[in-house]
Each structure stands twice: as C-alpha cells, then as structure tokens.
Amino acid sequence: MITQQQFQVSSAESGQRLDAVVRAHFPSSTAALVRRAIEAGAVVVAGCDAASKGGRVRAGDRVHIVQMLEAVDLRVAPNPALPLEILFQDADLVAVNKPAGMAVHPLRPEETDTLANALVARFPEIAELGDQPLLAGVAHRIDTGTSGLVLAARTAAAFASLRAQFAARQVCKTYLALVAGVVKQDGTLTHDLAHHPTCRGRMVDVRSLRVPERPMHAVTAYRVLRRVGANTLLEVTIYTGVTHQIRCQLALIEHPLLGDTLYHGPEVPKFPRHFLHATAIALTHPRTGTAMRIEAPLTPDLRKLLAEG
Fold first, then answer.
1. CB 17, CB 51: distance < 8 Å
2. How far apart are CA 16 and CA 146, in angstroms?
3. In this structure, are residues 261 and 273 in contact, taking their beta carbons and an 8 Å threshold?
4. What is the CATH number of domain 169-309?
C-alpha cells in the first residue's frame, strides 16, 4: 500500500497524462489501481480542484498520493465464516456448490464475501495461483445469481491444465434451466454475442447493434427434460464461456429463464433469482489423466419451485 507520498512533475513529464506519470513514479502499482485511486480522489494535484486520470500535468506540479494499492495488495482475504459446500476434493482440485447470491470472486481486495474468500480460508495454497490474483485458483466463473458447481485448482500444474482444457473446449459444463413457455424439441443455439452498448451488464446478439461490437461466439445445446406447469425444464450444455451465454441465448428464442428479469423472464413470487443451476462438469483430471464427472445437487429453493410446479 502506498500512502502519503509526494513527487514533483519534471519538465520532461509536462503535458503527459496524470495516470501515466503516477504509474511511472510508482511501478509497484498497476494502471488499473492508479486509475482507481485517481477516481477515488486519493491522488491530489496541488492547485487542482479535481484530478482526472486523463488530465495533463505541468512541470512543477506537486502530486500527492493519499493512498494507492500496489500489485502485491491484490490478494483474496480468507473468510472462514462463509459457507462452503464441498462436492469433491483431492490434492489437485476442489469442486464446490456455490449458493445463488454469492459472487465467485472479489473485484476489489477489500471484498470478503465471495466464494474465493471462502476457498482461500479453507485452502490457503490457492491464494497464489493463476495470473489474476483476485481469482485465487478458480478455474471458471458463473453468475452471482446462478447456483451450482465451481471448480478450483490447488496446484500450479492443476491450474495450468484446467486453463488449457477450457481453452481447448474440452470441458463440458451442464446446467438445469427452467424457462418460460413450452419448448417442444431439443436444439442447439449459435450466436455471436456482445455487451449491450447502454444497458450495463446485459448481452445482445451483435446483429441487433447499429455499431458493431467485438463479437463473442456462443454455442449452447439444450435437451427437453419435462414440462413444469406452463414452463419447461431443460438440460443445457455449453462448451464456450461467454458472459450470460445461456441466459441471453434462451431469451433470444423467446424462452427466458424464470426469474431472469434482466432478459425479460417472468417474475416468480417469493423467488428472487433466476432458475439456473450449474449441475455437472466433465473434464480430465489434471494429474492422473482420467476422465471425471462431478455433479452438484439442486439447491433447496430450486427443488421447492419444481415441486410446486
């Protein structure tokens, strides 16, 4: 942590962006952390009412760093008070059943209520794994509102193997989804998705955009399991890992998830989430090379909703 540090802008630095100059003086931080400190008002330029990351500095300006994180501060804090339902563990892997409402990992090191915080408390060795410190060995992500199976590595070799398997699309992830309406037959959905330009956190088909965005190819297969009242229970399999892939693609065929109001799914009384559960994952064990499948039972709220039909 960098606190109460000052420097004076040199003539060679005059006219440069504030964030670039701060980063040059404090290379132990990162560009993102410098921007965050500036946006939080923790970087003060003498004589300037409000410093901005894109603001230009002048020779002789005095820059005061009130507080700024360094790269070494990007660590997941252990939180042993959080629940952790372990489905599988050995010396290489751990699989857990994440409850809905819990994020997979923190976005800032001061966050302590995520699955990664619980994992680090139970398995301290994973805190140092991977190239993204706040992921702490977690091999993949599911939405905060989605429950179910999440896999993490316990060794560097296991993490590298899992990353390679995901990149090669050799990992098969299966979900249970309760969708609005009657789905008559099995199918496969193929779309190029992109972030919505104005609705933060939502994905759209790139073909609906006037200005093209970077497309992310998504392929989702689904199988009809049974009718549940006026709705349909699907088994969904994905090999790609695009943000909101299942939620967006099912909504595109007019069968949004129950409770998924972001994608215009019908609200369900006393059910404050969408019906999507990561139920199984099939992969190759990173050390033994054997094929394995891990399953996560439905959470009580989902079982109750299905029983009520």
1. no
2. 44
3. no
4. 3.30.2350.10
* Average model confidence (pLDDT) across the chain: 93
Does the domain at 2-73 match CATH 3.40.50.620? Answer given as: no
pLDDT digits over 265-309, tens only? 999 999 999 999 999 999 999 999 999 999 999 999 999 999 987
- In whole angstroms, give the CA distance from residue 1 to residue 243: 32
- Asked if the model's pLDDT at residue 50 lies above 60, the reply is no
Number of residues that make up the chain: 309
If residue 119 lies in a helix (H) or strand (E), which one and from where to where? helix 115-122
Q: In angstroms, rounded to a whole number, what is the distance separating the alpha carbons of residues 194 and 109? A: 28
Judge whether 133 and 70 are in contact, CB under 8 Å: no
Long-range pairs, 21-28, Cβ under 8 A, ≥24: 21/57, 21/63, 22/63, 22/65, 22/68, 25/63, 26/2, 26/65, 26/68, 26/70, 28/2, 28/70, 28/71, 28/72
Q: Decide if domain 77-159 falls under CATH 1.25.40.10.
A: no
Q: What average pLDDT does range 70-91 have in this prediction?
A: 91
Of 143, 205, 260, 301, the catalytic one is 143
Output the pTM of the full model.
0.83
By the 10 Å C-beta count (0-12 exposed, 13-18 middle, 19+ buried), 207 is classed as exposed
Q: Does residue 61 have an active-site annotation?
A: no
